[in-house]
Design brief:
By secondary structure, the chain is of the alpha/beta class. It has 2 domains: 3-124 and 206-230, Rossmann fold, CATH 3.40.50.1360; 132-203, Alpha-Beta Plaits (2-Layer Sandwich). The chain has 6 helices and 13 strands. The strands form 3 sheets. The chain has a 6-stranded mixed beta sheet, with helices on both faces. A 4-stranded antiparallel beta sheet has the order 8-9-7-10. A 3-stranded antiparallel beta sheet has the order 4-5-11, covered by helices on one side. Helix 1 (3-15) crosses helix 2 (32-44). Bound molecules: ribulose-5-phosphate. Residues 27-31, 83-86, 96-102, 105 line the site of ribulose-5-phosphate (5RP). Residues 27-31, 83-86, 96-102, 105 line the site of ribulose-5-phosphate.
Length: 237
C-alpha cells in the first residue's frame, strides 16, 4: 500500500478518538495532517472542540479547515494531543523533530492528559538511534556542537530547502541533528543534551511513556498498540 495512504489511515483513526468539548493538541507533520483534515470534516458536522497547534504549519492547516484554535494561556490542560514521531521504541520513548517542531510539541505533550502518536510501522524500532534534532540559540551553536561531538557521534546543522543556510525554527533558533555513536539510555541522554547551555530542547521524548498511546498503520490496516506493560494480547486497549 502507498505510504501516504498508510499515514492517512493512522491520522484519520486518531481523529475518531476526539470527542465534544475536548481541548486538543495538534502535532506537526504529514501524518497529523490527515488528522487535521478529518477533524475539519467532523467540525463541519457538529463536533465542538478547541485546538492548540504546535507549529506555524499546523496552525495554517487548522485554519484552512476552519478548526477553532486556542492557546496555552487560555487553557489549564489539554485532553488529548495527536502527534507524529520519527522513532518509537517498545516502551514508547520517542524521537521527534524531523519537522523542527519538537520544542513546542514537547511543551504541548507535557500539559496533555493523553499523547496519541500516529505513525506508519516503519517508525517502530527496537531501540532509539537518532538522529536527534536539537534546537539551539544561535549564540550557543558552536559550544553545543563541540559538546555533542565530545560525547561521541556526528552533528549536522540542518540546512533549509528553498532557503540558503540553516533551518530556523518557529521559535527563531537553529536546529542541528545529532547522531550519537551509541544511544544506551534515552532518559539520561535527553537530560544531558537539554542541560547544555544554549540548547532550547531536544527531540528525545522519554518522559511521556505512561500517557502515550500509539496508532500504527501498515499494509494490513491500523491498530492501537498498548505499551508493553499493558499488553493484553488483543492489540486493543
Ligand atoms: C515534527 C515531528 C513529526 O511529528 C515527525 O517528524 C513525524 O512526521 P511525519 O508524520 O511527517 O512522518 O516531530 O517536528
Amino acid at each position: 500500500m502507498d505510504i501516504t495512504r498508510i499515514k492517512q489511515m493512522a491520522g484519520e483513526k486518531a481523529a475518531t478518538m476526539v470527542h465534544d468539548g475536548m481541548i486538543v493538541g495538534l502535532g506537526t507533520g504529514s501524518t497529523v495532517a490527515y488528522t487535521i483534515e478529518k477533524l475539519g470534516e467532523r467540525i463541519k458536522t457538529g463536533l465542538c472542540i478547541q485546538c492548540i497547534p504546535t507549529s506555524i504549519q499546523t496552525a495554517m492547516r487548522a485554519m484552512n479547515h476552519q478548526i477553532p484554535l486556542t492557546s496555552l494561556d487560555l487553557v489549564s490542560h489539554i485532553d488529548i494531543t495527536i502527534d507524529g514521531a520519527d522513532q518509537i521504541d517498545p516502551t514508547f520513548q520517542l524521537i521527534k523533530g524531523r519537522g523542527a517542531a519538537h520544542v513546542r510539541e514537547k511543551i504541548v505533550a507535557q500539559v496533555s492528559d493523553l499523547l496519541l502518536i500516529v505513525a506508519d510501522q516503519s517508525k517502530c524500532v527496537s531501540a532509539l538511534t537518532g538522529p536527534i534534532p536539537v534546537e539551539v540559540i544561535a549564540f550557543g551553536l558552536y559550544p553545543v556542537i563541540l559538546a555533542l561531538k565530545k560525547m561521541g557521534g556526528t552533528v549536522i546543522v540542518r540546512e533549509g530547502q528553498k532557503k540558503d543556510g540553516p533551518v530556523i525554527s518557529d521559535n527563531g533558533n537553529i536546529v542541528i541533528d545529532y547522531t550519537p555513536d551509541f544511544l544506551f539510555d534515552p532518559v539520561l541522554l535527553e537530560s544531558v543534551i537539554t542541560m547544555l547551555p544554549g540548547v532550547v530542547g531536544c527531540g528525545i521524548f522519554s518522559g511521556f511513556t505512561k500517557k502515550t498511546r500509539v496508532i500504527i498503520a501498515g499494509d494490513t490496516g491500523c491498530r492501537i498498540v498498548p505499551a508493553q506493560s499493558e499488553d493484553n494480547g488483543t492489540g486493543l486497549i
